[in-house]
Amino acid sequence: MNSNSFYTFHFLLLLQLWGILCINRPPNFVVILTDDQDITLGGLIPLEKTNSIIKKDGTEFINMFVTTPLCCPSRASILTGKYARNHQVRNNSVSGNCNSLYWQNNHEDKTFITHFKKKGYSTFYAGKYLNQYGKNEVGGVKHIPSGWDNWVGLVGNSRYYNYTLSINGRKVEHGSDPQKDYLTNVILEHSLDFVNQQNGSSPFFMFVSPPSPHAPFTPFPQYKNKFSNLSAPRTPNFGINGGMRKHWLLRETPKILPPSVIESIDDVFRNRWRTLLSVDDMVHEVYVNLKRKKLLENTYIFFTSDNGFHLGQFSLPWDKRQLYEFDVRVPLLVRGPAVEKGIEIKHPVLNIDLAPTFLELANIPIPEDVDGESFAPYLKKSKGKPSNRTSFIIEHQGESTNKPIPGCPQYKAGEVHTCEINCICEDSWNNTYICVRQLSDKENLISCVFKDRELEQNTCSIQKVKNPKKRLKQKALGRNRFFKTKENVPNKWGSK
Ligand SMILES: [Ca+2]
User: Fold this and answer.
1) Residue 454 — pLDDT band, cuts 50, 70, 90?
2) CA–centroid distance, residue 392 to ligand 1 (Å)
3) Total structural domains in the chain?
4) Per the count of CB atoms within 10 A, which of 223, 266, 302, 316 is most buried?
5) At which residues is 3-oxoalanine (Cys) found (predicted)?
6) What pTM did the predictor assign?
7) pLDDT greater than 90 at residue 43
C-alpha cells in the first residue's frame, strides 16, 4: 500500500466509524404543545413559518385526535400515554385529580419523561403544565414533576400577563410589560437558553407549552391589528341549535345565536389567530438556534395541541369539552431525522400515542400499561409495523357547579357549568360520555353513550379497554340511551 492509499483507506475507515456513531446517537426532541388550538376551523393557517419548517419539511397527521377534549385530562394522557379512565385525571379541578396528590403519587413519577431521564437525557419543560400546577394545596411552586431537570412551570391556567412561574422551584412573578412579561415570549427566552446550553454531550428533550390560543386570547401588541377583516368560519352547524338528535346540553342552546354573541365569536377568532403569531415566531427562533448549534439534523420537532375548539358550532359560543370533530381533532406535525417531507398520513393517531412514540424513537422500552400505540413506524425508515387501529375511545366527565348560575334562573344548582355568554352553557353533569370513534377506509362514525338522569351510574365503568367497540355495545344495549350519528365528519379517507 503506497502512502496515498494508506491515507485514503484510513480516511474512509474514519468516515465509516463517524457514520456508525452518528446513526447510534440518541435523537433529541422538541415538543411544542399549544393550548386549545383547533384544526377544523383553520387553526394552522396563521402559522406560516411553522407550516414551512415542520409541515412542508415534515409529515402531517391529518387524523390526529385527543381522547378527552379538555386541557388537564388530555395533558395527563400525553404525559402517561393512558386514557383518562386509567390515569383518573377527570377534569381541570384538584377534586377531578388535575395535579392532585393522587396524580403526583400514582402517575406523575411514571410519565414518559422519567424514562428519558433514566437514559441520561437532559430535560426541559416550560409553560402551562396541568391547570392546577403550583397551587399551595398540591405542593406549591416547590413541586417539580419527576423527570424534568430544567423546570419553568406556569402556576395555574393559561394567561399572557400577570402570572407566576416556578423556575426550578423558585417563585417568579411577572407583570404586564409586553417587552418583559408576554408569556409566549418569556417561554421562548428560557427555551433558547436551554438550546444554547446544549453541547452535544448528552441528548435532550425539550417540552414547550405556550398559552396560545387559549383564553383570554391576548395578542402581543405587534400583532393586535392583524386579521382585522376575518370572521370565524361559518360552518354548516354555525349558530344553529343541535336539534332533537343531540343530547340534552346541545338541545338547550339557542335556536339562532344573537348577533351580539356572533360579534364576540368573531372577535375571539381573530384574537386566537393573533396569539398564534407569537407561537409561530417561537417555532422559527427555536429552529434557527437548533440549526446554528448543528443540532437540527438529529432532532425531532413535534407540533400539536391538547384539545380542539369550537366557535359558534351548534350555537355554543366558544370552548371545548364536546365529542364533535371541532373539539377532538387537533393538529399534529412532525419533522426529524428520516421523517418524510411534505406528506400526509391518514392513519388515526391519538394524544395517548405520543408518549410511546417518543420512547420508540429513542429506543427506550415502552411500558406495558400504556394504552396508546407508537406511530414511530411512520416517522423512521425501519422495520416497525404500523398499527392497524380503526377505532378508539373519546370520553369526558361533564362538570356542573353546585351553586345557582347568577342571571340564569332556568338552571338549578348542580346542572350546568361555564355559562358566561348569554346563559349558554358549555358543560353539564350529563355532558358525560364515552364514545367509540371508528375511522378507516370503510367507516367514519362516532357512537356515544351519555350519562342520563335514569342511569347515571352505568356509563363509564369500563376499566381497561381491550376491545372498545364490543365493550361499549355491551354496555349500551338496553341500559343507556344510545346515539349513533354521523357528525359533520370530514371524510379525509375518501379525498384521494
Ligand atoms: Ca387546552
Assistant:
1) very low
2) 20
3) 1
4) 316
5) 71
6) 0.89
7) yes
